[in-house]
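In this section we turn from sequence analysis to structure. A common task in structural bioinformatics is to predict how a protein folds when a small molecule is present, because the ligand can shape the pocket around it. The inputs are simple: the amino acid sequence and a SMILES string for the ligand, here NAP. Study the lines below before reading on.
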Amino acid sequence: MRRIGPYEVSDIGLGSWAVRDPKAFVDTLVKAFEMGINLVDTAEMYKTEPLIKEAMERYGSKEIFVTTKLYPWSIRYDAEKAMKRQIERLGKVPELVLVHWPEDIATEVRELEKLVDKGLVEMIGVSNVTKEQLEVALQVTKKHEIVAVQNKYSPTFRVTEELFPIMEKRGIALQAHTPLDKGRALELPSVKEVANRRNVPPASVVIAWLLSRSPIVIPIPKTENVKHLEELLLGTKLNLSEEELELIG
Ligand SMILES: NC(=O)c1ccc[n+]([C@@H]2O[C@H](COP(=O)([O-])OP(=O)(O)OC[C@H]3O[C@@H](n4cnc5c(N)ncnc54)[C@H](OP(=O)(O)O)[C@@H]3O)[C@@H](O)[C@H]2O)c1
């Protein structure tokens, strides 16, 4: 298990960007909840909140940690209205809201703080940020802590590691988006070699590698395929050796 603020969440969550087949996605999400995943990612932009709502209803519990993200302009224009729309579409108050890609981060995180005060969300964070932007966000938030950053992080995309020291010091979770780099990470020769040696799928190796990088890392891959889901979950149980980790780099 990993942590976001006071919450214990599963080692991986599921993303919901670019769902091709809504029915297959909901089926996979229900299966994921049954298999212990309790974290799901959506956004104003994705329009997948009703699918997550349906999956929670079929699973029979809303005790799922939901992250949503608002457009920066929605936050600046009328954050309350945008958030109420999210709540209505999800059928619950989400645990976490992020500014999807900050434009004026100081203003945007202060607006997110007001949403917590109004009971429209429990916690706040930021997405697609540089180290400098994160530092600004940490400086200007006065009442509510930044509990998570959602940035791209994958064996093929590592710039987010620059943020690790400050995040680890403050216990800020990294929701690692695009962890498979949309399939590119599965094609890395080092990933393929470790997968062959262990006789596991490359996706399991990528998840195991990501989880080994720091206790703050929580990969949020997207799948609408139960076989792929099982491969991703296998990665949470796979302990790579020092030599295997070094091979991937
Ligand atoms: N904050 C942001 O700006 C931002 C940006 C991008 C993404 N995100 C979030 O992060 C989530 C994940 O990113 P992503 O969806 O762009 O990319 P990703 O998770 O790196 O890759 C998703 C692709 O990998 C495939 N896949 C999943 N499991 C697999 C497996 N075991 N073996 C082979 N292929 C597999 C999926 O196909 P199947 O569905 O067929 O399995 C899908 O085509 C998004 O859904 C979204 O929630 C956030």
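Residues 15-17, 41, 100, 127-128, 150, 177-183, 186, 201, 203, 220-225, 228, 231-232 surround NAP (CB under 6 Å). As an exercise, try to locate the residues that line the NAP site and compare them with your own expectations.
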